[in-house]
Amino acid sequence: MLGIVKAKGAVLYDEDGKEYVDGISSWYTCMYGHCNDFIIERVYAQMQKLDQVVFSGFTHEPAVALSEALMQVLPANQERLFFSDNGSTATEIGIKMALQYHHNRGKKRSVLLAFEDGFHGDTFGAMSVSGLSVYNGPFEDYFIDVKRIPVPTNENIDSIIDQLINDIDLDTIAGFIYEPLIQGAAAMKMHDAVGLEKILALVKSKGVLAIADEVMTGFGKTGKHFASDYLEVKPDIICMSKALTAGLVPMAITSCTQEVYDAFYSDEIAKGLFHGHTYTANPLACTAALAGLELLVSDEIQENITRIIQWHQDFDAEIKDHPKVSATRQTGIIYALDLNVQMERYGNLRDRLFQHFMDSGVFLRPLGNTIYISAPYVTTKAQMDKIYTSIKAVLEFL
Ligand SMILES: *Cc1c(COP(=O)(O)O)cnc(C)c1O
């Protein structure tokens, strides 16, 4: 275990003073840089005014201001927001919304649809819809019933549509949860919008609610504010966390359409969505999120995003034909490459790569034979070059 004592911008500092470029934005959170002065000042001011209050029967200015600002950047069909406190609960709430939406309308739909190899978090509903893995083995007996389909490609999309029409009873499906365009935990596996669009159009026409898990993809990483912005067919529900609060404190929001909301709006108490966490809509978290949103839409950050996209493209042109590289892919500021290594030669590959990166002052977390970059928008060219150089060194020693 390495002690990290300080962070600023795109850089982490360990207890010996050694610096590391944070190539994955501490799990895609601190996109505007660590300890961002603008965000800190705003949160500090808020701290002196109102730190925490129950978000039940009460409301507060940071939550209202954040809601208004978030509505400006969310896909236009999103009209209602439900606050909670981390990515797993954001998806858990999305799942509960979908199940109860049908229940409230007097229809029993108890199955969920999800992509193979997805990751949606570590609570029970979220585990249920995530790809099957050894980590979740002990709990599988308690999972919600889930049907899984592969992520779409040009080759398999027709067979997926066929499967959805002939093998899966869509009338039993409450919701389809998916990571739009990029499956983060599945080593930044990317799929294009065309196939996803076809799946969404079909399932939505059968009354299935589309739940976009944008916990990783949200807030600019794909080159647009949300990955769903690349699609014509919009989700009914969107799950957000991670970069929502710019890496300062945890918080999450699950948004939905007016139509979903209306299924819960009733004088009958049992129709309400009863899900509340103690720190729901914490004022400091809301303040950090609002400051982050202001940065996201600023010319400066948008220009940074455009610049990083170009740097990655240039880097890709340089390395994609290298014999040690078997595949590369990019969506927005997320770049991934697969190393051309035989399975049997894996051994401790991941550990060796990680150590190499750390030794060269770069924090990257390879997944299997995949190396990916998702550095903060404020990363300088020199810092990004340090990442590129350390990756190129891998191609030489591998
Ligand atoms: C990280 C992540 C989650 C879970 O978020 P936590 O805050 O870690 O609970 C859910 N979905 C996706 C796509 C994620 O990347």
Automatic annotation (TrEMBL):
Sorted UniProt keywords: Aminotransferase, Biotin biosynthesis, Pyridoxal phosphate, S-adenosyl-L-methionine, Transferase
Top-level enzyme category: transferase
InterPro entries: Aminotrans_3, BioA, PyrdxlP-dep_Trfase, PyrdxlP-dep_Trfase_major, PyrdxlP-dep_Trfase_small
Pathway: Cofactor biosynthesis; biotin biosynthesis; 7,8-diaminononanoate from 8-amino-7-oxononanoate (SAM route): step 1/1
Cofactor: pyridoxal 5'-phosphate
Tree of life domain: Bacteria
UniProt cross-references to PANTHER family, sorted A to Z: ADENOSYLMETHIONINE-8-AMINO-7-OXONONANOATE AMINOTRANSFERASE
Membership in a protein family: Belongs to the class-III pyridoxal-phosphate-dependent aminotransferase family.
Protein name: adenosylmethionine--8-amino-7-oxononanoate transaminase
